[in-house]
Amino acid sequence: MSRACAALAGILVAGLASAAVPDKDTSRWWGHIKVLASNDFAGRLTGSPGYRKAAEYVAQVFQSEGLKPAGSQGYFQSVGFESQTIQLARSTVSLKKPGGAATDVSASVVISPSVLQRKDTHAPLVFAGYGIHLPEAGYDDFAGLDVRGAVVIYLTGGPDQLSGAQRAHAVAEALPRFLEQAGALGYLSLTAPKNREVPWERQKAAGAQTGMVLSEKSLRRYQGLVFAGAFDETKAELLFEGSGHRFSELVALADAHKPLPHFSTAPALDAHVEASVTPVASDNVVAELPGSDPSLKEEAVVLSAHLDHLGTGTPDHGDGIFHGAMDDASGVASLLEIARMMHAAKAKPHRSLIFLVVCGEEKGLLGSRYFAAHPTSHAGHIVADINTDMFLPLYPLKRVVGFGADESSLGQDVRAVGSEVGVALVPDPMPDHLVFVRSDQYNFVRKGTPAVMIAMSPAPGTPQEEQQKQWFMQRYHAQADDLAQPVDLAAADAYNRLLYRLTLRVADASSPPTWNENSFFARFAKQPLP
Ligand SMILES: [Zn+2]
Question: How many A from CA of 97 to the centre of ligand 1?
Fold first, then answer.
């Protein structure tokens, strides 16, 4: 923890002491986090003994709160994975100029462990703007561009004319399908500096961890082997030397959400990737509160959160364990709290509630993808997903952002329950971060189910905004996301009550949530993705 943060913690503790709110010893929500983020669970890596222990803890709490088992084996649904480790010492990436020598850029590339990698790739590089192929929405970075046999470079972001949701979908869904159909050999992604969330060094370190894909091939984003990597944007001019373009110009265009040019770069890519792949199994935890209405109980509202985190690694601002207290023990603890609140209030929601705690989120939203493809309960009748991932109660709850709230009637539901308790629903302040496709709700969206994820949102220009920014820089996917960090427990309780109200409102409504007519995602209700 930095000095600035320690001072901030002091302010928070002082603030808490003056109000009648729970402390770290009395908060039930924090009590679950204290268990799940403790050393005993070793960072809850998907497929690890620590994860299994955490899954058993969650199942036990669900049982004691009177929820029915709703997995395929009791409370569990087993998910099969292939786990890939990149042998970094034996892998190299270099740039080769025509007739010139090769420049080793291995240190500037993260070879993605979460896509099954090609062994040897010698390919021309083509810069394809934002890498967005959405002709149906009137934007195609690949129009007239031949990428067969090439590795595509793209810069994260998107033009003004596309919504955040469309940009998000384009990168997560449309790009892999397009690249494979067009015969490209892979991609290198670049992050515009203002969109960087974690320091490059941390992203680089993450590349040394194992990645996973689902064993069920048809559920993978890439069906074949590709070269997949991210390039350090501070070294990006290397890619563009001799192309007549500079990276800095491209970034300026991207910052202004203008269309980007498309062109071949001067250097070609030479990559040799050594990787080992082994099978692994892990569990989703699924529990149910059956609905009380004779006809509506057939339908189910899913409450989801992910239990897995990053396991262990080299000590760095921490003790070698990625505790994942906020990411996402906090969301799981909220589900456990809502189960308790339902039990204590003897709540009888009209529709059934499915409490879904998934594995494989950090490996690419894989546990939820598997569940959405193979629901163990209420298949074909899941009407909504309300997801909770890192809602970050760092300061009092006044404003929330609802990822997906602009897409379906769930936005009105969030607005309605928020106004009952003095919490405003505000627009996503960072649409370029593509949060809507970056947590488990998106796998329900792909199947045509309206979904929303609610997180706290600081008012612009306030110290809270800086506090949130610092949290991302210092703790997001770092070992410092631990039990020593300051949190506003009253805000967490308020969030849980908001989620509770929202859940009951959606479960009790006379009709299920509907997509907004103008939503880009409404199409998946008619044509679900695989
Ligand atoms: Zn995470």
Answer: 38
